[in-house]
From TrEMBL:
Protein name: Alpha/beta hydrolase
One Pfam family it belongs to: Abhydrolase_6
A molecular function GO annotation: hydrolase activity
Residues annotated as domain AB hydrolase-1: 7-220
Keyword Hydrolase: yes
Organism: Lysobacter silvisoli
Recorded superkingdom: Bacteria
Length: 231
């Protein structure tokens, strides 16, 4: 039996649980035997927080919660569960009470903001022909194509959903900042990581998709958080 905590991975907008594939493999090779990746509906912050909360509640033991992109807002909203020992943010939103991902985005608009397009059903898409340059410019064209075709669009209203009780004020946090991020402006990431008092801020010369382009470093940060809060 491994004495390592369960790692619960939470994806963001325009992707699903499979965005964590390389991190999952890296964590498994580090000895993590219980890794879970939630598949959120991206229909509202309340829906996504409840789906993730239920997954964490099914774990009998300590959990390290990891959120990428909008997944950071999800773990911020629901991460104050008793068995959550650490929060890890990967190029992610970490709103304060009364803040939303959309509101934070407005402080410093990211480079790729013009490449978002709503459809007639209220879902917000990242234009397929702009996906590579916007989301994952440090991945191959083939990888970007698959991400673009399989992207999971959120309901646009989810951007405006406010946090009610930020878990980062109660749980120890780690943050990975992508300096070449075109989806969440690096200055917004800097502001959020400093404000939360992160135990460590890992800056990577990476795109928004650092979980795919720099999985070894991301997995190492998760492991660092797990070890620092063990016991």
């Amino acid at each position: 039996m491994s004495n390592k905590p369960t790692v619960v991975l939470v994806h963001g907008f325009w992707g699903g649980a499979a965005h964590w594939s390389k991190v999952i493999v890296a964590l498994a090779r580090m000895g993590y035997g219980d890794i879970r990746a939630v598949e959120n509906p991206l229909t509202s912050l309340a829906d996504d927080a409840e789906r993730t909360r239920k997954m964490v509640a099914q774990v009998d033991g300590p959990v390290v919660l990891v959120g990428h992109s909008y997944g950071g807002a999800v773990i911020t909203q629901m991460g104050d569960q008793a068995n959550v020992q650490a929060l890890v943010y990967i190029a992610a939103f970490a709103p304060d009470m009364g803040e939303s991902p959309g509101g934070i985005t407005q402080a410093h608009l990211p480079q790729a903001a013009p490449n978002l397009a709503p459809d007639s059903d209220g879902y917000l898409w990242l234009k397929a022909d702009k996906f590579h340059e916007s989301f994952c410019q440090d991945l191959s064209a083939d990888e970007a194509l698959v991400m673009a075709v399989t992207q999971k669009a959120p309901l646009a209203g989810t951007f405006g959903d406010n946090i009610t009780a930020p878990a980062w004020k109660k749980k120890p946090c780690w943050y990975q900042l992508s300096t070449q991020d075109r989806m969440i402006h690096p200055e917004n990431q800097e502001h959020m990581s400093v404000r939360m008092g992160a135990k460590k801020v890992l800056k990577l010369d990476a795109s928004h998709a650092s979980l795919a382009s720099r999985p070894a470093e991301v997995a190492a940060l998760i492991d660092e958080a797990a070890q620092a809060t063990a016991g």
